[in-house]
Design goal:
The chain is α+β, with helices and mostly antiparallel strands. It is built from eleven helices and 14 strands.
Length: 370
Amino acid sequence: MNTPLNVTLTETVIDSIRIESFIYHIIRKDTAEPDYNDEVILDPEQKRFFEGRIRFACEGTQFEFSDVENNTCKRDCSDILSDVSRNLIPISRQLTARFFEAHNRSTSEGIFIVAVFSLIINQQRHSMLSFLKVDYSTVFQQEINDVQGRKSVTLHKVIDSLSDNPHTLQKWAIIDTSDMFAWDVLALQRRTSEDLKDTDKAISSYFKGFLQVGVRSTPGSLTKESVRVAHDWAQGIDDLPEGMSRSDYKARAITYFENSDLFNTSDYINQVLGSYIDEDMAELEQQQRINTRDGHETALRNILAENGIAGQVFESSPGSISAKSKRTTLKTTTGAKVVYQGTRKLNNIVVTSDGGEQVITIRTTQLDEI
């Protein structure tokens, strides 16, 4: 067996995408089940358009099938690709029904597209599958014909509608059931933030349940997840020592990846926590702070373990951390904002309490009005 290609699809490979077979079914809120079609006829222009949508879908987060032996989604996809002419229509109906049920029938109206497409890898065409969930109300215009008892659909003006509104594509997935790639599924959904891409939260829990996948661990995904877990944990600290900032934990986590080549759990925890004591503290206060830090070390290690990070060794990928994630914003009741990167100390920012007010002190040699 060849070693899987541990890479994303290149631009050249994506450009070679060609739709081989195409069907969609309609999902409406006011029906007990989807409205199924037996055939969808695309003219050349429409085919090119949907090939463009599939190319767009190739930018998804990498996932792997879970419980492979019992994974019905993988089995159905494999069955379609093994005999497209025989299996595409009946199995696409099953997939659409499961997608409908997975969302507890509360999904927004739309068309669920199942398309078999091919692309050129190593000078040979390789078949894959795509799922596209597209808004119904804004894009759907069709002509339905009864052809020998089969519902045949011809699309009208759908391309103009989709082109005018880039947000009509709700969810998408590219599925490869072979062992050619280290990933099984590329998936994403609209309005996923840069911080959530390449993490387990890149798609909704119900879409993950439908696909029966878990995020594939990559240096980028593990880096982002490590920062997220440290940040979320810091937001819930009940015994945060006086004078310490919750946002500094995330800042120190990011600094760790910027300055380290390989992830080490103990080193990471030590960097994220930082120092809890000052030399001018009384001995009793220092001991109390040390005890607090020991408790925080245990808690952070446990939460990293629960999220599958503790104990792993992977290359740091600071480039995967978005600029937005690196920024911290302090906002007052009057709407004034202080935006900075790194810890408060590195930015000469001190926040103290004075009665019922918070006092922000910033020291700088230059102040510019922008």
